Structures are given as structure tokens and as C-alpha cells.
Amino acid sequence: MDPEDAVELARNAMLVTLLISSPVLLVGMLVGLLVGLMQALTQIQEQTVAFVPKLLSMLLVLSLTMSWLITQMVEYSQDLIRSIPENL
After folding, report:
1. Residues 6+ apart with CB under 8 A from 36
2. pLDDT tens digits along 32-42
3. What gap in Å lies between CA 38 and CA 52, rounded to an integer?
């Protein structure tokens, strides 16, 4: 395996990781921003008020995108396994 191949494998792994984690992270960030804004407007500074909506929204997005996430992981794994003979 050449160093270029190793760098390409690492780059692809990071790209797939970013792609897979982005829906949940973006929703968590958006809900956190909205909850923080509502807490600032109402001056309610309870930690569970910020935690519970983020947790529920992230679980909802995770459950809605689970089939897509699994498809992406399986495709990446299959491509990685297929490329083993080429990199030997």
C-alpha cells in the first residue's frame, strides 16, 4: 500500500463519518440555538429545558434517517472490502 492510498482511505473515512453524523449534529445545533434563544427571552435557565428537547429531536432525526445511515455505512464498507485486493 502506498502512502497515497492510506491518505485516500483516511480521507474517505473522515468524509463518510462527517456525512453520517451531519443530520443529527445539525438538528442538535439548531434546536440548541432555538432553546437557548427561548431561554434568553424568558430568563428560564434550567439545564433540563435545554437538554430534553435536543435529546428528543436528535433521537427523532436518528430514527428517521437510520435506513439512509445504514445504507451509507454498508456502501462504504463494501467499497473498502472490494479495494483490499487492489491495495495489496
Report:
1. 50
2. 999 999 988 98
3. 14
